[in-house]
Amino acid sequence: MPSIIRRRILASGKPRWDTRFPVKAPDGSIDYLRKSFAKKADAEAYVADLRVLKRDHRLAGRDRRTLAQYLTAYIEDAAQHRLRPITVRNYRRLLARHVLPTLGAYRLADLEPLAIQRCYSELTNEGLAPASVRLVHAILHRALAQAVRWRLVTVNPADGVELPKARARREIRTLDPTQARAFLETVREDALGPLWEILIQRGLRPGEALGLTWPDLDLDRGTVTVNRTLVRLGRDSWDLTDPKRPGSRRTVPLPASTVARLRTHGLEQRLRLGPAWRGDGFVFCEADGAPLQIGRVRQRLWTLLRQTGRRLYPGDTAEAERQRSELAKLSLYSLRHSAISLMGAAGLPVKLIAEWAGHADPGLTLRVYSHTHPSQHVEGSEALERLLLNGS
Fold first, then answer.
1. pLDDT digits (tens, 9 = 90+) for 317-332
2. Which domain does 40 fall in, by range?
3. What CATH number is attached to the domain comprising 271?
4. Cα-based torsion angle of the residue sequence 296, 301, 304, 309 in order, rounded to the nearest 10 degrees
5. What is the CATH number of the domain that holds 123?
């Protein structure tokens, strides 16, 4: 076997110790890992470490494919078999947009932490939010960790890369009790009234509510069961998938008024669809029975919020305009956050709120989904003052 450590003399007269360690490449050929050291002891320690890795079958030869080729194989051979379709689509989109333009041409075996660090630095300088950079890193790190397990590389080059500091979580806008009551009044006659009522009163995730089918409703008992969630794969393609977590499967009671409106909604839908109506079809659907387009649902929500704003804050003053504008910025997920906050304001036990929300951990319900409003601060201050001064 050729010498693994070889001494050579530089032009300056100083010695260098070069290592040449044989290892089998993924294609079956023999490759050599080469590295140079100023001290013989360092070269010997490096070779000793390589021998341990080789003995434990954790040493990989140089893979000749590019990072772009590897990531394609990773998604097709691994990721798409264990991740949700929407997650796989997001992996492809984020890698194509933020990683491949800078790193895609690198050979997998030549990819080093510094190259990844420079990529993240460029993304940050271009204005990509720290949270988005961290998400890109999580995807790339996970893909490269699989390369280590497949013995295509020895170490994960994404290890040890410095990430931008995460910004403080932005407070999600929610409806206070007065706004929620006005919103319910506004949607009472809307064609999607029962959908808005379910979202604002029971806090279903938008995908869960839009994925409801008639068998999920037991109108005699007044309950809705969440079994699936609707995932949009494209404008005209969708899928019904299992909920994100086992705790997301749940049965939730519905208000009697919502049950009555769902009965009416069902009759109207049956008349509207005619022969196309199906007993196992979507509760909220397009004219052809397909699930609602999420974009149209958002647009309808914003229209209803503007109507609610005009109801609550009439007039042409700057303050009224500001309040109407703030209200119209709410998202579909804001309704879920609003519902959970309203449940807390109504005094429901945290464990019950978590069960209705589909949270396995009640602590998550408190940390992320519970919001306070200015009026609650005033009420809390007055209650504490009554307790301390009046004893009641």
1. 999 999 999 999 899 9
2. 5-55
3. 1.10.443.10
4. -140
5. 1.10.150
